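re: ur question from earlier - yeah i can do the single chain one, its not a big deal. heres the input i used so u can compare w yours
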Amino acid sequence: MKQSLPSVRFGEILERIERKIIVTDTATYSCVGVRWYGQGAFIRSRLAGAEIIRKHQWRIEPGDIVYNKLFAWKGAFAVADETVTGSIVSDKFPTYRADLHRVDTAWLKWFFRTPDLGRQAQNLSKGAAAISKLTLNPPDFWKLQVPLPPVAEQRRIVARLEELNAEICKAQRAKNEASEQARKAFGAILRRQYRDLLSQTNGTPLSNLVSVVGGGTPAKSNPFFWQGDIPWVSPKDMKVFRLLDAADHINESAVKSSATKLIEPDAVLVVIRGMILAHSFPVAVAKTRVAINQDMKALVPSGGLHSDYVAYMLRGVAADILDMVERSSHDTRRLATEDLLSIPIPVLRDLEEQHQVVVYLDELGAKCEELTQLQVEASAGLDALIPSVLEMSFRGGF
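and the output i got, formated as C-alpha cells:
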C-alpha cells in the first residue's frame, strides 16, 4: 500500500504576481472570472473602460494561478490558459506564479478540482457563507496545502488522470447519444402511429373533439392563495406524460379570484406559449384536478374519447405543430388556439381500440424510459468516478 504523499504549503511553491494596470475609458477590456470546483478561468464580460468602476486592475497571463477570494470555499481556483491572455481581473482575484522546479501547473490544475482544497479554503476563510461573505484573504492563501511528490511523479499521475478523463468523457458522450437516440426513436414511433391511424380513419379536427379551458396566475402578492393542495401547473411541470402533481400549489380561493379555473382529471394539457416551443411541444394528461397558468391550455375530450389516446396523437403530430409555431407571425413563440384546434385527430370510435393503442405505446415508452434511466444512472456513476480517482491520486494511491 502506498504511503500518503508529502504536502507543502502554497507559500513554499507560489509567488505573488501583480501586473497592475490603469483602466482607460476609451479602451475595451476582457474581464476574467473563475469557475467553481476547479473548472477553470473564463472571460465573463468584455467592457469599455468607462463601464469599469475600479480603475486599478491586474493583467493575467497563461500559467498564472488565480483564485476568487469570495468563493475559494467553492473551489474557485484556476490555472490561466491562452484563452484569457492579456485579460484583466479585479483585486478579488489575486494572481500567482508557480515554482516550476517543484510543481507542474497541470498537477495544480487537477488538485484544484478536489473537494479537499475547498474544505481547506473554507476552514481558513473569514466571515459567513451567505453567498458570499466568506473570504479567503491572501495571507491565508499561503497556508493552503497541496500533496507534492517529485515533478516526474506529478507528471506521471497527471498523464494517467488525463487518459482516464478522456475515456470517461468518451463514455459520457456515448451514453448521452444513446439516451437521445432512444428519445428520438420513440418520437418516430409516435409519428408513424399517428400517420398510420390517420390513413385508416377520417381525421376529425380537434375542435370537434374537445372543449378548451385557459389558465391564469393568482395574485403573487397574496401568499394565502399559494397555501393549498391544488397543483398549479406551468410549463416547467410538463416533463411527464401523466401528471399527478406540480411544483406550486394553490387553494380554492385562488381559483375563484383569478383567471385560472379548476380542471378535472383526464384533461389533456398543452403548452401554447413560451420559448419551450422552440424545440418541443409538451403534452401531458392530468390525472388529478389541477389549475394551469396562462401559457397553457387544457383540452377536455368529449364522451367516447380516451384522453391518453388524444395526448399520444398530439405527441405524434408535434413536429407539425412546431412548424405552425415557426410560421407564426407573432413576436413571441405562441401556438394560436385556432391552429391547435385545426389539427386532425384519427378517431377510433371504439374505446377498446383506443385503449389498445395506448397500451401499445405505453409499453414502448416504458422501454425507452428504462433505457434512458439506465443511461442517467450510468452517467451518475461516471460523474462520481473522477472525484474518487482524484482523492486516491492525491493521497498517493494512483
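The first strand starts at residue 7 and ends at 9. not sure if urs matches, ping me
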